[in-house]
From TrEMBL:
Name of the protein in its database record: Complex 1 LYR protein domain-containing protein
Sequence ranges of Polar residues compositional bias: 126-136
Pfam families to which the protein is assigned, alphabetical: Complex1_LYR
Location of the Complex 1 LYR protein domain: 16-71
Comp. bias intervals (Basic and acidic residues): 228-243
Composition-biased stretches (Basic residues): 112-121
Lineage of the organism: Eukaryota, Fungi, Dikarya, Ascomycota, Pezizomycotina
Species of the source: Endocarpon pusillum (strain Z07020 / HMAS-L-300199)
Highest rank taxon of the organism: Eukaryota
Segments of this protein annotated with the region Disordered: 112-147, 227-251
InterPro entries in UniProt: Complex1_LYR_dom
């Protein structure tokens, strides 16, 4: 397959451009005009701007213009008055155009554009964390276990059945949306604590305890060898019958086993509390359902009586 030619990566193209660039800079030193310093700056700026051109027509136009300027420089160096006048006029017009462009750019920088209406944040699109009213519990709100509330204490005068939700084993009742930030923060803290304890128990049972078993086996092997040689001073300590953990304080496995049992107890206690909380919340849910049904029936009967009257 034919590979496309990238001009600035071609050695032939680079050699031709660099030769033209050096020739222009060299001959610009031999020209004595009022803008000779500006001429060298224009040459450097133009080559820097066009160094990554890939269009064949633009590259050809640039090389032709460079060759024409080189001929004009050579003629000016020989003292031709028409060439010197043409070169001075060309430099002055270019510098004047660059000055106008720079002034226009500076004027644009001073203009402060108003922010676009599309980029302006909308109140409905702001994150929930920006709403300060959702970051803490409302002062007039009551604890969850004091529900169901009387109809007179419910905002809007209409009772709604909450949704029973369990987030990774942590139960809660959701009465309305959006979810309060205080509730979300509490759920994240409980779930993070639960994951931390799970990771601790997994590391103890899968890494630390097996390593302790290997160390105790090695110590037992060394102790048996010492007994054979008659240099043993170790005394064995019986295991705890309830936990099955060795009571020897020198055992590598005793401390990890105690830690694993302690972490397991904390996890089971956490799960029992969640289970008890879930049962209490479900009882509240059933009471709310009964009250909603009763209030709906009472309202419909009251409407029937009004129509009859």
């Amino acid at each position: 397959m034919h590979q496309p030619l990238v001009p600035h990566q071609s050695s032939t193209h680079r050699l031709a451009c660099l030769s033209l660039y050096k020739a222009l800079l060299k001959h610009s030193l031999t020209v004595s005009t009022t803008h000779s310093g500006g001429l060298r700056s224009l040459i450097r700026c133009r080559f820097k701007t066009d160094r990554l051109l890939q269009s064949p027509s633009q590259i050809a136009n640039g090389l032709n213009a460079g060759n024409e300027v080189l001929k004009l420089l050579c003629a000016s160096a020989r003292g031709e008055s028409s060439s010197i006048a043409r070169l001075s006029e060309l430099i002055e017009s270019t510098l004047e155009l660059s000055g106008i462009t720079e002034a226009y750019r500076n004027s644009l920088r001073l203009i402060k554009k108003p922010p676009s209406s599309r980029r302006a944040p909308k109140a409905n699109n702001l994150p929930l964390s920006a709403n300060k009213t959702l970051q803490s519990r409302r002062p007039d709100s009551s604890p969850i276990f004091e529900r169901p509330l009387p109809l007179s204490q419910i905002r809007g005068g209409k009772r709604r059945v909450p949704k029973f939700v369990a987030a990774q084993g942590v139960p809660f009742l959701l009465y309305s949306k959006p979810q309060p930030q205080s509730l979300g923060r509490l759920l994240r803290q409980k779930i993070a604590w639960q994951h931390k304890k799970w990771d601790q128990r997994t590391k103890l049972t899968e890494e630390t305890i097996p390593l302790g078993v290997c160390e105790d086996a090695w110590d037992a092997l060394v102790a048996s060898q010492e007994e054979v040689e008659g240099h043993s001073n170790r005394t064995s300590v019986p295991e705890d019958r309830e936990t099955g953990i060795s009571g020897d304080s020198t055992s590598w496995n005793s401390a990890p086993q105690f830690a694993a049992v302690s972490v397991g107890d904390k996890i089971r206690s956490f799960e029992r509390r969640n289970l008890e909380t879930g049962r209490r919340l479900f009882e509240i849910l059933k009471q709310e359902r009964v009250l909603v049904a009763n209030e709906k029936e009472k309202k419909s009967s009251h409407q029937v009586q009004n129509t009859v009257i």
